[in-house]
Every structure is written in structure tokens, then in C-alpha cells.
Automatic annotation (TrEMBL):
<keyword id="KW-0391">Immunity</keyword>
<dbReference type="InterPro" id="IPR040839">
    <property type="entry name" value="MG4"/>
</dbReference>
<comment type="similarity">
    <text>Belongs to the protease inhibitor I39 (alpha-2-macroglobulin) family.</text>
</comment>
<dbReference type="GO" id="GO:0098552">
    <property type="term" value="C:side of membrane"/>
</dbReference>
<dbReference type="InterPro" id="IPR013783">
    <property type="entry name" value="Ig-like_fold"/>
</dbReference>
<keyword id="KW-0449">Lipoprotein</keyword>
<dbReference type="Pfam" id="PF00207">
    <property type="entry name" value="A2M"/>
</dbReference>
<dbReference type="Pfam" id="PF17791">
    <property type="entry name" value="MG3"/>
</dbReference>
<dbReference type="Pfam" id="PF21412">
    <property type="entry name" value="TEP1_CUB2"/>
</dbReference>
<feature type="domain" description="Alpha-2-macroglobulin">
    <location>
        <begin position="683"/>
        <end position="780"/>
    </location>
</feature>
<comment type="function">
    <text>Modulates negatively TGFB1 signaling in keratinocytes.</text>
</comment>
<dbReference type="Pfam" id="PF01835">
    <property type="entry name" value="MG2"/>
</dbReference>
<dbReference type="InterPro" id="IPR008930">
    <property type="entry name" value="Terpenoid_cyclase/PrenylTrfase"/>
</dbReference>
<dbReference type="InterPro" id="IPR041555">
    <property type="entry name" value="MG3"/>
</dbReference>
<dbReference type="InterPro" id="IPR011625">
    <property type="entry name" value="A2M_N_BRD"/>
</dbReference>
<dbReference type="GO" id="GO:0002376">
    <property type="term" value="P:immune system process"/>
</dbReference>
<comment type="subunit">
    <text>Heterodimer; disulfide-linked. Interacts with TGFB1 and TGFBR1. Forms a heteromeric complex with TGFBR1, TGFBR2 and TGFBR3 in a ligand-independent manner.</text>
</comment>
Amino acid sequence: MSQFLISFLAFSTFFHLITCDGYFTIVGSKVIRPDTDYHLAITSQGYKDPTSYKISINGTDDDGGNYQQSKDITISSDGTQTLIFDLKNLRQGDYKLDVMSTNGVEFHKSVDLDLNTKKHSVLVQTDKSIYKPGDKVQFRVLVLDSSTRPYLSTNVQVYVTDGGKNRIKQFDNVRLVKGVYQDELQLSDLPVMGTWLIHVKVDNGDESFKSFEVAEYVLPKYEVIVDSNPHVTFKDGKIRATVRAKYTYGKPVKGQATVSAYPVLWLGAVQPFIQDSIVRKVIQVDGKGSTEFDIRNELKIESDYERYVNIEAIFEEELTGRRQNGTTQITVHKYKYNVELIKEAENYKPGLPYNLNIRASYHDGSPLTDKANPVTVIVSYLYSEENATSTDYLLDDHGMAKVEIDVPVNATHLSIKAKYLDSDFYLGYITQAKSHSNQFIQARIVTEKPKLNQEISVDVIATEGMSQITYQVLGRGDVIVSKSLPVFGSNKYNFRFLGSFAMVPKATLVVYYIREDGEIISDHVKIELGDELNNFIDLELSQDQAKPGDDLSITISTKPNSYVGLLGVDQSVLLLKKGNDLEKSSVFEELGKFNEKTRFHRRYYGDFYGSYSDFDISGAVIVTNAKEEIRNMRIYNHHGRLTHLKGGPVPKMTLMRKASAPDGIDENIQVTEPKIRKDFPETWLFETFSCQENDTEEYDGKTTISKKVPDTITSWIITGFSVDPLTGLGLTRQPSKFNVFQPFFVSTNLPYSIKRGEAVAIPIVVFNYMETDQRAEVRLYNDEKEFEFVEVSDDENNLNREKRAIETQRRKNVVIKSNSGSSVSFMIRPLKVGQIKIKVTATSQNAGDGLERMLIVVPEGVTHYKNKAVFVDLRNGNEVKANINIDIPKNAIPDSVHVEASAIGDVLGPSIENIDKLIKLPYGCGEQNMLNFVPNIVVLDYLTNLNKLNPDIESKAKKYMETGYQRELGYKHNDGSYSAFGKNDKSGSTWLTAFVAKSFNQASKYILVDKAVVKQALEFLKNVQSANGSFPEVGQVSHKDMQGGASKGIALTAYTLITFLENESFKDEYRNTINKALDYIVRNFNQLEDNYSLAIATYALELARHGSKDAFLAKFDSKATNKDGMKHWAKAVAESDEKSPWNLQPNAINIEMSAYGLQALLEAGLDSDAIPVMKWLVTQRNENGGFQSTQDTVVGLQALSKLATKIYVPNNNVYMNLEYSEGTAAQMSVNPGNTLILQKYDLPADTKEVNVTATGRGFAILQISYQYNLNVTGAWPRFVLDPQVNRLSNKDFLHLTVCTNFVPDNYTEKSNMAVMEVSFPSGFTFDVDTIPFLRDTQKVKKVETKEADTVVVVYFDEIERTELCPVFKAYRTHKVAKQRPAPVIIYDYYDSSRRATQFYSARPASLCDICEQEDCTEVCKIRASRRISNDTESGEFNRIKDSKGHANQMSSPLIILFMIAITKYILRV
């Protein structure tokens, strides 16, 4: 077959051969790129008369347009010339290179060209690869051209999508500075978890992406590495594994490791987990520890084939119990070493030397250096081994043996085998090159290590004399170098060319000559210039290690005028996940894409035209009148690993800088006052700046910056990049590792909070990594006298404690062994409520350190908040008087009372000031989260309409909107709907979807909101609409007044209708949906008696300008309550609740319907009638400007803002005198300069009454806010609540069961969505591992924690008469004694009058339970002995009691058998 093909090609060549007096070649890149210069190398030989050719690049774009660019050339003498085409405006399409003679011998050939539309590279750098909720994502975008220089573009789009593929934020007005754009994204505290993407699109081209992860995580304080020889043999017998554990600051960790080893058993794509094949061993680790596994006896592996073994270690730190994993994989080989073939060319060429190298190495790549035992190389030349030759070679220092082969003339191929000691290796085939004349050329790069910007030397040898040789270097989609050289009949020649950046990452050299008969004799060689970039950046740190707070100088060296970016990240972050930084491999991968085709031809162009293998391999096209090449019949090797030898046998070496141990500290330093450490970031450096030329004549590109070292004891990884308009991109060769360490430091671990009157042991650990043991003095300071130091004897004699003076500090001495840590503690009792300072120092003769932390102290009981507001209206009068009573219960906790007066000259002022804390309820579900979103829209609309919006408020509001948008997308279903708990719910909610769609539409004018998200939500609502026009609730009913009730769903239908009416851009599209809903509401007018439904329906009809709107408004207005110049609407109260004190408190439903009433009056043009409603709403707000719940706050603020816009007085001037006791008063004034400033004034805690006198012009809002704590159960509970501490509990463990059920009334059998908040006694922390079990409790939809896991928040769909009893577990994590009772609260989220509170106590802990060492006196020893005695006496009884209880629970048949046995015994007796 091969002989036939060769004969056919020879005949075809003869048939097409043109008799002429010369030959030419036109060589160009196979790939063309738009908006670049395309170079063609035109070489001629043997021409006697000038000959002209027309060379064209032409084709058809995808839109059918024709493209043609032509140039004429004349060939008249030997040599090479370059023709340049400017490929501007080249569009997507199919193109060809066309060559046609215009005189002389007729010639016309075409070859297809591959289109590459890539114009630029996009690289994205983030400061980290993984982020926690609430983190700030910092990122940089680099847009570079094909030479890594800044790409000039004014059209760069950047946006971010979350883990649910929702577009979160779009960055407008992106401006590149020398190709670099830097920005940041603030994550919300509850974003969609998973993989987020930064999208970049330049000039409307293809998108580039950079991913990062958003997840909950804790930074590892240490790393665990499993060390083992990655390659062992069956003969070794055992696998040795060493577990290394060290802190991020480099010091060893003590602990215990469980090491597991098991073979990898791949069955298809499944790794079976076979318990019997896992071998586990437990070892002690002090920085490192080792163990061994027997390959045959323990792992059960036989030596039949290569196997893999996984080794995993679970390490537990001794001091803290924290766990960290490490893993590695081992390969078990049959032989200890490997032998491979390194070829200098794919084919051998008869008449030319063929050299190859045999490389012997261990499996880790290190060379085998055996000077005694040879490698036997067996070469066979035909398809049998009869004529094989065998030669022994000794290995050199690189494990290499150079083999020179004299190939027989009749050889058809070479087959290579090798033998070393008792191992045989088959290395593969080498085929023979072909040519018409049996003449060949060979090129070899003789420069040992070609480098950028240095000359590369090439030797050429041929089997015959040559008159001229030609070479081209091709790379990155272009001809880089092209030249013809006369050689004057010689068969050897050497030439040189300069290695340029255009040859990075790879390029190919083609060398050829044309024989007199027209045959092209060619060869090609690959050029690799390593991983060098044209620019560079070096970072020189003034020191490799420093103490926290020291100054560090960083000297940056790069090309002058470069734009520099620095990144410094805590090594702990990189231990979690890498991939955030710019890597050279990514840069070279991008550069390589410029040489790839990005589309395939849809049409066939050109005649049948032979190709030339050396040019094909080099990525070139050739058009020539020379002979066509004989195609080589290739035999592919599937057995050996074959690589090309470039420049001789140079072993590959990777140089890594070994991290040195921290420098020693001079122990004779005189210690001064220790520095207090406070700054603990995860990202330290993320800066960009220009290295501009300064006034000096010779600027060397060096810039030095100074940075303050953070306080974290860790290692920082610092990298950098630079971009120069001339030389392009430069990256640091190796990251700089900077250790922040001091050999002597302290740490402490405080509880989140404690209650006043409790005693807490402040734990302090002192670490000593100095060469000698240290005796240190540890001090706890009490400069502000915020607490008292506690003695154990205080338990016995409280009088001594009261007489003892408050100490301003206390000290203890401790000895810390070298390379170890010691702990001490101080027992204190806080004397004040609020934050108290815990300042600790530790000093020895040679070193010192200090820390400052804040401990939160709260009053016992539950805090109750009250707010009384007055709308001071001086628009139509000169004076207003008001009297405000402050009602503090007699049983309020002492020192828990706080009274405050505040004033502002704007109706929305308090809400604007406290936009981030409008209500005091949690935000754990999809509807509650909207409170972080919607009020910001209201504020921006309001201030924009009044032209009072300032940049600070705008920035703050947009930030909250963006984070709220992120969070809300986490509650989205695949069908575009939303529900309270997202995909944890079976389906989306009609109500919440309408709320979200309306709000997203309102927000779209301020932040990026994906229109597709809004559209999808509206489609969902359209599809759930019933045939009668109503919108039923298809999801969980959480807000029964809105979603259910006796009004046939009119409230929800009207609410959803409002969503469609307010979406102006979609109103026409959904006109039919809107009309059906309107008709349904109007048809049910006569049956509509529910105030809540009537309120929303009235507003909806006013908004739609419906003909029935006046009738609805009249009916609704008739149901209003008018009192004291104020007006509102109220929900009917059950007869059993008429005397409930909660009826006197603001009610969320009443607020919501009154707010709809206000908006309806405004839509009807009855502004004056709306003023009394506004006055009432103002009195219902809390001190932060919000109301009770989500819906009432959202609707209430919308209503107030609409009216406030209409009654705004630009020149407010109100003076208020607040008399709070006889002869004592405070003055507050509101004027145009402070209208939007919330003024506050603290009043005495015993204030009972405030008399207000206001004068001036305009209006103001005056609030008297007060709070107090109660440690009693709430009055008139609507839930039964029973917390019980189970008998399994002790002083270190809390097992709590909380049972609850709803107390029904005449109207309601069950609650709306209910929330339970369980607080734990001070010092206890919730066991978060039990959250999945809590979620399995009936009706529980979500569980979350707050205040550092000391409070658990449980969300219930609803609570009915049936009792629910969730179980909570907590552990003592901090030593606290004398704990006060802890509260459990449950409430209806949408009706604040439905609630209950109960308290419980943990097992009591005394001072003897928290003291240590000398603090524990004889009193504690006596108590301990008594406790042991009591335990001994009661132990048997408890054991029997417990066993009975266990038997009752576990096996009642055992009791029956026991009773039968006793009965038989008695009868027998």
C-alpha cells in the first residue's frame, strides 16, 4: 500500500511539474489574526528573468461580504524578501492565500488559512481564592495584547455572578491604567455559597472568567503534611510515612495523628471503600512522627503490576483539640528505576548521523548514576531481530548515555530496546525519512540553554553540497525571522539569530534548500526559551522576618514606567485554597492561544495542493513551484515515552528556596513596655502604583515602599506583577515569604459575653520559642476599674469582698519551657454593663508581649425596648407642647435602664440614620432579608426627589442594596420563584415572589439587577394565576393575614397585582393578567369586610385608576379609628385578648394596613387627610426608625416617604426645650444645617416624665427612647414555653429540651411563621454539629446561630396546638461561675403580640470550678472531698436508677422477663 502511494505521488508530481528557470517559496503562518501585520517570506532561487506574481489574501466573511487584499511582487534574483499585509477589519469568515503569476510561466495556487480572532489576553487576579460571607473581594483585571503589552480598549465590561449564576454586580466605567483595572466587591453576610465568577468581556469579544469560592471556613492555625517516598518498590517491603505538623509561623505542633493507608482499587470510575483494606495506626507527633506499613502483610498488595496507595492522617492538636487533615499518594513500582528514549528527531535520515540518548532515572525523576553497571542498548533494523546489534553504555552524572547509530542502507526502521541489570525496557520505533533524491538536511540547536534576548546558534549539515539555505522562525501566528544565506557548495553551515519574546512560549525553526531539480530538502527544530517574560519584577524585602508592628521596606525593581501590583496574603489562606494569583503557566497558555485556530472552514477553498511536513509541523503554509514532498508513512509509538532532544542532554532542574527557620533573638535586649496587638487581616497587601521616572537623570526602575507589619503571628506570601507599555508583563520569579514572628507572645480566648455579676476566668497562654526557659510575669490590667478580681473565699464571705479595694492590676509568675507554652488565668467579676477592656502583658527578662481584647458584659434578663415619638408640627403655628411619660416597671433590673432623647428635622430621618438596623428581629429567611434591601430604595427615592442625596448616604444605601440582592438570590427556585427558605421549601411562594419582583424592579435604577431574574419571577406569577383572576398561594403560608384569611385571597391578589402595576416596563405585556386580577377584586367588593384585605385592595385600585376605586376608599375610610388628631386602622382583637397588655404596643398588622391607607389617600389626592395617618405611624416607630417586622417597616417607610416629599419644608427652624425634672432641661434645635442629622441626648435613668415645648417654624420628629431588662416571664403569653435541663447535663455539658405549642383564640388556631431564640448560659457554646438533627424536628425550616454560637435561632413554619420539643446541646468552652439564668423566647414574626419568655439555669458552677493552681484554696479541696464522698454514697443508687431508666427506654421485654423470673422465685420459695 505504501509503495503504491509513493508511486502515485511521484507520478502526480511529475505531471504537475512546471518547466521553469527558477524556483520560489512563499512561507507564512497558517494562522491569521485580525488587526495585525501578517508577514510572508518569499524566497527565490535560479531566476534568470524577472517574474511577477500577484499575492492575495481573500475570502468571504460570515455575513456574505467579500474580502481581498492583494500585493504584486517581482522575483529576479536569489534571496528572501518579506511582504507585509495589514489585516485590519478582518471579520469572522473563511480565508485563503492565493498566488498567481502575472507574466512568464503560468502559475496559480491557493491554500486555506486558519482564522484566529484572539486580539488580547485577559488575566484576573483576586486577593484570595476563598472568602467568607461578609468578606471583601479585591480583584485586578489585566488586558494585554499578544506581546503582553497593555491592550488599548475603552470598551471593557466586568461583572460578577454568584454560585447560583445570578448576576450580582456590574462595574461601569471600567478604565484601564496601563492595561490594569482594580476594584472590589463586598459580600453580604448571607450570600449564595459556591463558586462565583468574575466575567470580563473586551470589545464585545469572548468572555473570560476567574472563579473564586464563597464558603464558611476557619483559617487553619497550622498545616499537616504527610511525607513519604512517593515511589517505592515491592522489594522495599514497607512504606514509611512521616506526619509533620507546624504552625503557620513555622513552629512545631504537638498532638496525636491517626494515620490510614489503603490501596487504590479503580473499578471503572468508582473507588470502592473496602474496610478490610484500610490499615490505621495512631502515633504521637511532636512536630513530626513516623510509622510504617507492610506492603504485603498489611496492605495485601502483590507485585503483579504497578499500584497506588493513599495515606491519610487526621491530626489533633494537644492544646486545643483542633483537627487538621493531610494526605499523600504513593506509587508501588515493580522496578526501582525507569529507562526512556530521548530522540533528536522523529525520523532518521540516511547518510546523516543519528544520535539519541538513553536516560535512566528513578521514578521521582532524579538521575540514576551507576558507574559500574552498563545499560545495554539493542537496536534492530528490520521487522525481525536477526540483525540486531547490542552495545553497552555507562551512564554519566546526569543518568544519560549517548548512542550513535550507523544505520544500514536497507533498514526500514529502527527498533530500540534497553536492558539494565535484571530489567528489560522496550523504547519504541524510529522511522526513516523519505525524499525523491534520497538527499537530506539536518539542523541542530547547539546553544545549550537558549535564552531571551541572546543569540541562538544553529548547526546545519546536509548529505550534499548546497548553494543557498533559507530559514524561518515561526511563532505566535506569524513569521518572526526569515533569511536566506549563501553557503557556496558546502554541506555544513552555522548561523545565529536573536531569541525574541515573540518566540515565547514556543516557536519552530524551519531550515531548507531547493535542489536544482526543484526538490525542497527541509528540517525543523523546536525552540524553547524557558519561562521568561520580556519584563521583570524583583521584590527585595528589608528583612525576612519581623515582629508584629515593625516597619518593612519593600524595594520593587522593574522596567522604568511600569505599572506595579503587589499582593500579600496570609499563608493560612493559601493552605485552604490556591489559584488566585497570576501564574506564568497561565500567561504562556494565553500566549499559545494566539497560534491556534478559533474556527474551522465552512467552505472548501483552493485546488488540491500538496503539503510539506516540516512546514505543517511548524504551523506554516507554503506556496511553491517546487516538487511536492513524498509523504512519510508514520508508525506511531504507543509503548515508550519519546521526547525531542534540544541542545544536548540537559537535565531539567527546579530550584526551590528553602524556608529558613526564624532568626534567633538576642536574649540580652532590655524589654520595654510590650506592644499591644490588634490588627489581624487575611490580606495585607493589595496595591497598585506606577514606577514613574523621577527627576534624576538615570532612573533604574527601583521604588521602595514602607509597610507596617500586621499583628498576626504567621507567614505572609508576597508576589507582584508589572506592566510596561514597551516590554509588557513581568511576574515575580518566586513568591517572597515573610515571617511575622516573635519568639515570646501571649494569646487569650474570651467568651462572647457574660452577664453582670458572673465571675469569669480569663485564660492567658504564654508561648516561648526562645532557646532557654523563661520566667515571666503576667499582668492583667484594670486601669478603668471596670471589674474586680475574685477570690475563692468570696463564696464564703461576701463581706470581705465588699470591703476589699478594687485593684488596678494583678500579676502572676509563670515558667515557660523553651519551645513550649504555659497557661495562667485570672478570675474577675465585671462591675459595669457594656464593653470592658481586657489588657494583658507578659514580660520576662528578655522578651515581652501584650494583647488587648474587649469583653462584652450584658445585664441579666431580657431587654425590652420602648419608643415614644411626637410629630412636632409648627407649619401652621408658633408653639407646640407635649408631655411624654416614661414607664419603667418596678421590677426592672438595676442599672439596665437607659433613657435617650433624639430629634431630627425629617420624617424619614431616623430611618436614614439607622438604615442597617431598622428592626430588632433576625434576618434568616427570604422575606426578612428584604429589609436589608427595600428601605434603601425608599431612602434613595426620597432624597433624590428632594435633591438632598449626598455621596455618603448614596454609597451606603447602594452597598446594602447590593449585599441584600446577593442574599435574596439565595432563596430563588429554578422556576424563578422565591420562598422563605429557598430550595429547602418544596415550592416557591406567590407572596414572596411578588414582593421580590416588585422590589428588584424598583432597585434596578440604582444597582445592577438582572432583567431576566425579574422577568422569570413575573412569568411564575402569571402561571399561578387562577382562571377567576385570583393569585392563590402555592407555597408555604407564613403570613396568614396576607396569604390566607377569610377574604378569599383578596389581600394576596391585590398585593401581586401591585407588583405588575409598578413594573412599568412589563405592564403592557401582562395587561391581561392585570385585568383579570382587577375584575376578581371588584367582584368580591360586597363580601369584603376584612380591614387588612380592604387596605391593600383599595391601594391597588387607586394605583390602577380603576372606576371602583372611590367606593373601595369610602368603605375603607369608614372603618378608621380617629383619636387625638391621629388616624389609623386596626385588626379586630379576640375577646380573650382584650385585656392583653400587648394590645397597647405597636402592632405590625395595624401599621401595615394604615400605611396602605395613607398611600391610597395620597393616590386619591387627599393629602390633608393623610396627615393624621402619618402622625399615628410616627408614634409606632421604634427608636431606629423602623417598625415591628418586615412588611410593616417596608410599607410604612414607603408611605411616610411619599407624604414627607409633599410636606417638606426647606427651611426648618425648630427649637425644643425638654424639661425632665424640676429646674433641669435640655435644649435641642433643628435647622437647615442639621435637618438630616439625628441629634441624641442621654437623660438620667430615673427620668419619669419629659415636658416638651417647641417653637419656631417647620416640623421635627422628637423621640424619647428607653430600654430596661426584666428577668421574669412575659405577660399574657400566646405560646406555652417549657425549657428543661435534662439529667444528662453537668457543669461542662448542657442538654436542653424546649417544648412549646400555640395558645389559640377565637380567630386563630395556629401562628404565622414563628421564631425561637435560645440563649445559653455564659461560657457555653452551642454544638453546631447538631444543627442537622434540629432541622429534622417537625415544622423546623431553618436553624442559625448568632453571637459566636451562644444563641440559636430556630425558624418554624408555624406553631399549632400540638407540642413541639426541639433539643439543644451545648458545651462549656469558657470558665464562668455564678451564671445567671438564660432566656428562651418565642414569638410570631408577623404579630408581635404573640410571644412568650421563660428562663432556665444550667448546673451551678462555683468559683472552685473555675479556679486554677494557687487560686484554689483549701476551701476547694474540702468541697472536692465532700463531693467525692457524696458521689460514692449515691453512686450505686444512681447507677440502679439510671439502668432502670435505660431499660425502660431500650427494652421493655426485659422487664417482663425479669418480673416472671422474680415471680417464679417467690413461688418456689
